Amino acid sequence: MVSGFITSVQGKAIANNFVVVGKVRHSQRMNDTPVPIWIIANNEGTVLSAHCLACKAGLAECCSHIGSVLFYIEVWKRIHGKLACTQVKCTWLLPTYVNEVPYFEVKDINFKSAKKLKTELDDRIDDLCQSFTSQKVKPTVKPVVEAPIPSQAEMKALFSEVNKSSKKPVILSLVPEFAEQFVLKSRRIPTLPDLYNHDNLTLSYPELLEKCGEVRVPLSDSDIDLVEHDTREQSHGAAFFKHRAGRVGASTSYSVAHTNPAQPSISLINNICYPQLFRAKSKAINHSIKNESKAIDAYKSLMSANHKDFALEK
In which band, very low, low, confident or very high, does the pLDDT at 60 lie, cut at 50, 70 and 90? Predict the structure, then answer.
């Protein structure tokens, strides 16, 4: 499904049968126009008829182009025909002696490690053994002192003090008064993936180009400044891939200039449209990522020697 040989596979149910059309690239002539094929099958999957419109073997309804589309349909069904494990309820097998797993509040869960629990159990056993051997009076159990529940004012004062820390504590992300600082300001700025519309899949190539020419994504100067600020960490931050999706960057500009616009590289399209999944890799990019901190330190050292009160910020 990821080789790029099979494209434009579509199907429709007609009179209890399924009609599938698609296009297949030539295995030896990749630049030639893809071969159009069609297949008719019944509800049980039996192929009633098939035809390839651009090869001699297809006249006998048994060419490799037809077979490749049938394999494509079978693989697509196995991958997309069932729900992922994260889309259904938990299906983990419980031990035979466990009927259900009850839910507990966080305050009631014991987060001690198994090693710590084992140490405490050994200490209790040792205390019991000593009490039986020496016949001493059982030690009194210390009364449990319940801490008073803090008031809203006390909690607010605590969160205010914690917020003054140089690091941003994660607990503040759950407090409405302090949660805003954890949300990137550029998150509300529209990006190219936000323009996706499922209805556009039915458009022809010329209609799609015409619609693309009508698209406008207005960005004010303040929006540009926010995007620049939130993407300074580049690949180390999530905002970088969000705003880069659909745009041609420096790492892909050479490949874009040398690919065939009529049949662009599938891997190049993946790099541009889904940068968080298909990251561009090359010796130059890997070298710059590995030595970025060294370059910054060298630049800071050089500029500090030649400029008074020089300061470098990310």
Answer: low
